Amino acid sequence: MRWSLPGVILMMTWMVAACSKERMASPSEIERGKYLVTLGGCHDCHTPKISGSNGVPVLDTTKLLAGHPENLPVPSWSPEEVERKGVLASTNSSLTAWAGPWGVSFAINLTPDKATGIGEWSESNFIQMARTGKHQGQPNGRDILPPMPWFNMKDLTDADLKTVWAYLRSLPPVKNQVPLPIAPAGK
Known about the structure:
Structural class: mainly alpha
Radius of gyration: 20 Å
Largest sheet: 3 strands, antiparallel
Number of strands: 5
Shape: globular
Number of domains: 1
Helix content: 25-40%
């Protein structure tokens, strides 16, 4: 059997596409994921805020879902300080860092940046994170800390979680190294 050059190229293209690790999401799947991310309030903590024209904080659209800005100083809260103030938790002005009895937590970078975001995660890691409350869905991973309501995600269907994943993967990657959580004083 003889193959023409265009036939070989077409066959190779098909084979590469068929062997690809991750299928391409349809525009409707990405839109559904965007809808769920918006409805779930993910931007409330994972998108930094900037001052709007009337002084009211607005989403920094250049850093959608990029997490706690790496250039902001790390807050120096303690459980004792939170208790002294008589509150359950305290946050920074960008709503990207939270302190409470668990220590200090920072909203992670949900963009597909490979070095600082979730670019190295797999779809199954993401689904396992939503099901287990463990960072990257790893059984021995660290717990996802408050105020992240991961337990609200565990009841989503796999299909819905896949659309959220598709939307997150469609975002432009933002290089933003979020600090690791800070354990409470004395622990």
